[in-house]
Amino acid sequence: MEKLGKQTIKLSTPVTILETASIVGPKEAGGPMAPYFDTCLQDEFWGEKTWEKAESKIIKETVNTVIAKSGIAANDIDYCFAGDLLNQCISSSFGLRELNIPFFGVFGACSTFAESMCLGSIFVSSGAAKNVLCATSSHFCSAEKQFRFPLELGNQRPPSSQWTVTGSGATILSNSGDGPYITHITPGKIIDLGITDANNMGAAMAPAFVDTLITHFKDTGRKPSYYDVIISGDLGHIGKDIAIDLAMSKGYNIKSNYNDCGVLMFDKDTQDTHSGGSGCACLGSIFSGYFFKQLKEKKIKRILVIATGALMNSTSVQQGESIPGIAHALSIEI
């Protein structure tokens, strides 16, 4: 591996994204991405007694699905990197406790899927592992319960708020296969511009997205036009517009080939999701569903994936803290 510039790592041995899987909830099943998911649920509980247990079941079944689709036996997977939004990452650890694979619990808020893939790709490219599993999940009801208000209160949601995606995404990274390949990773720095509104995650995370985006271009010498698609995790409609403007102010025009998974997940006009989707599963499920298929079918050949996260919790918000953002990037190519 080779370090480029300030933060980027070029993988000397490109890492194959061997297979992916995704499961989403009923709200997501009514959105435009529905045809690309492996399973669309009909209710938020999926037969469980609590939303938290349902989320653990979702990530468990998504991981079982990706293992089955890959044709690789579970005991041939060397390590698992997984995380979620709940305290102590209980969705991942409880859902995957019977997996019997060495486990790294990862937390990067909504950037967790990309963070897991960054770490997993280093293990594979370095020769420390042949096959690595990366997974994440989120759940609208469990996230609202933990971060904002009990759903029973029926609180009014402001226009800047986003809808946490119920679902999960999982992928297996391998040192064998014919691509698509992870070729570069650009881990992000913590960026905090003082946003304190927990109902405006897009504004809090957009500066981190732009910082990582520009760092990636400077480190690699690439321009936005190098990529067929630049995709962010869950900035939503408001955060996407902020990101475009911030990037333009720095001399980078990304408007023509940039989009956001929070924008893609729901139909804003018919689904009442305000600024769009968010949550670990927003990028996790859309990349594992839609974009992986686009890459395998060679409809796109170069994609820059930048997942964003808001590094806050309910306590920090109650104490009046600002909301730090983080963004991790993956260059994926055919």
What is the residue-averaged pLDDT? 93
What's the structural domain tally?
2
Q: Spell the H/E element sequence.
A: EEHEHEHEHEHEEEHEHEHHEHEHE
Form type: globular
| CATH T-level fold name of the largest domain | Peroxisomal Thiolase, Chain A, domain 1
- Estimated helix fraction: 25-40%
| Rg measurement, Å | 18 Å
Percent in strands = 15-25%
What's the CATH first level of the largest domain? Alpha Beta
Number of helical segments?
A: 11
Biggest sheet features: 12 strands, mixed
Regions with pLDDT < 50 over 5+ consecutive residues? none
Termini, distance in Å? Answer: 19 Å
Query: Count of DSSP E strands?
Result: 14
Tell me which CATH architecture of the largest domain applies here.
Answer: 3-Layer(aba) Sandwich
CATH homology group of the largest domain: Stage V sporulation protein AD
Overall structural class, as computed from helix and strand content, comes to alpha/beta
